[in-house]
Description:
- A hairpin with a 4-residue loop joins strand 3 (61-62) and strand 4 (67-68).
- The protein has one domain: 2-enoyl-CoA Hydratase, Chain A, domain 1.
- Helix 2 runs parallel beside helix 3.
- The protein is 35% helix and 23% strand.
- The chain has 9 helices and 16 strands.
Amino acid sequence: MNIRPFLILSLVLLVLPGCAPKIKMFGSTTTDPLKEYVVEGEGEGKIALIQLRGFLASQPKQGMFRSTASQVQEVVSTLKLAEEDDAVKGVVIAIDSPGGTTTASDILYHEILDFKERTDKPVVVAMFDVAASGGYYAALPADWILAHPTTITGSVGVIFMRPKVHALLDKVGVGVEVSKSGEDKDMGSPFKPATPEEAALFQAIIDDMANRFYTLVQKHRVLADDQMAVVKTARVFTASQAKEIGLIDQIGYVQDAFAKARSLSGLPADSKVIVYRRDRYPNDNPYNTMDMANPPSPSLLGVDAGFIMPPKAGFYYAWPQGLTQ
């Protein structure tokens, strides 16, 4: 088999993006402006539909040939457009996320809350497959939270994930020598097991971050003590369980979220639902995502293999089981 054509093609693909940045071989980029598209309705006034999907992070997502904006970047950009357009009277945020980093989740919460306070435009959340942990955290400022009948939500809490390789190094006879300025400078190192003292220090950090989450849940949802005790177990809930315990307001579909946003905004039933994207979809509808060409995940024989990668060390408002979806 002659592999020369494949080598030439690979070289062209590697060189061409740097030589001709204006040629869009792999879809839109973060430098392309967001544009408005109507996905539903023909009447007066607008409801802006904003997508919040995937693992929540503040860093851009890096693909093989290009990067795309992070969820924080995109949500802040779309909220700004919705704020500047006087015809936009309300916002629906579609959430399908297992959560993410504590900071990204908190930034999204802050930006959505600040948008509401600046504009007095109502915000409705529509949950899809998963809106857990940081995904639920970001939903808290909404005036109304709706979940799909099959949504999984909850997981209110914090998890600290860090890879450990010290056992493997011991097996192959490799060590890491560390010089440090303070006793706890290398706490959490993947090259050694945690001491009881280090475990206690980490637990104190986790408890502090979890208490912030609990405080915000209580502020926005006003749960009874017995309800809050169940929520603090960090378990996940079905939509019906979440409604019963008070984490959400309604079970329904995205069209019900549009109807609620129109009602809260004083708009007619046929008012427009618009989205902000860099790409145009043929036969557009509310279920399309914000960007047609997201960077690919690592794959094995065409199957997403991102779940085999070790987690980046850090504190997360995340449901770990949802990260493999």
